[in-house]
Predict the structure.
Amino acid sequence: MIDCETYQTNMAETPFSATGNELSVDMRWVRDPIEPHSAGEELVAVIEGAGRLTCEGEVYELSRGQGVLIPNAAERSWDFEAPALLYRVALK
């Protein structure tokens, strides 16, 4: 029998992160730019604040309640004018 792992979070007051064999999930406040990089497929939802995603040269302005599915191997970077709370699920 395989046991499930449970996690407790206080919904945005402190960072939350969990990593499995095939994916990682985190919720954290972000202030600093995220430099250009390529990674696996990623789903990002903006819980609070706003951010500017550049994905494969295309710019997307995302704010509270919006999300984006970033394709596998796409080059991406983020900029923030103020802190933003992001919820992220990423395939490895």
Remarks:
- The longest strand covers residues 23-30.
- The radius of gyration is 14 Å.
